[in-house]
UniProtKB/TrEMBL annotation:
The keyword Electron transport does not apply. Keywords: DNA damage, Methyltransferase, Transferase. GO terms for biological process: DNA repair; methylation. PANTHER family: 6-O-METHYLGUANINE DNA METHYLTRANSFERASE, ALKYLTRANSFERASE-LIKE PROTEIN 1. The keyword Kinase does not apply. It comes from Shewanella polaris. This is Cysteine methyltransferase. GO terms for molecular function: methyltransferase activity. Transmembrane segments: none annotated. InterPro entries: ATL_DNA_repair, MethylDNA_cys_MeTrfase_DNA-bd, MethylDNA_cys_MeTrfase_DNAb, WH-like_DNA-bd_sf.
DNA sequence: CTAGTGACCAACG
DNA sequence: ACGTTGGCCACTA
């Protein structure tokens, strides 16, 4: 039985993030079984096939901010997508205490195919 | 092989 | 609230 590759595990987790919620890169890495590898998450998202249609915009950094350069094209796109799902962004910041997805870990772990 | 580069992060000052 | 620093590691030139 081959392990699901790290990058696929990251895509799997991101795909589970519910609408109207967000998750920091580092937490995605943790849930994917790759603690301390937040940078790998950003790389995995960049390389993700468009056909997967992942909710990539729900992944933000640990400070509640969008990680693209301010005013850049992808920055604006992510900001708009987040607001479309009712996520408030004030002064470029998202309140993690309000919007961070907090899955029931026991249940989630049983669901994961890895 | 080495050096630079990230959609990062926690710890400091 | 910032800016810096050291750690992280796959990928690229």
């Amino acid at each position: 039985m081959t392990q699901m590759p790290p990058m696929e595990r990251i895509w799997f987790i991101v795909n589970l993030i519910p609408e109207g919620t967000v998750l920091p890169y580092g937490i995605v890495a943790d849930l994917a079984g790759l603690p301390g590898r937040a940078r790998y998450v950003s790389r995995a998202l960049k390389l993700a096939p468009k056909t997967l249609a992942l909710p990539w915009h729900r992944v933000i950094n640990s400070q509640g901010k969008i990680s693209f350069e301010k005013y850049s094209e992808p920055f604006q796109t992510q900001l708009e997508l987040l607001r479309l799902e009712g996520i408030k962004v004030n002064a470029g910041k998202i309140l993690l205490s309000q919007y961070q997805w907090k899955p029931d870990l026991a249940t989630l772990v049983m669901t994961l195919p890895f």
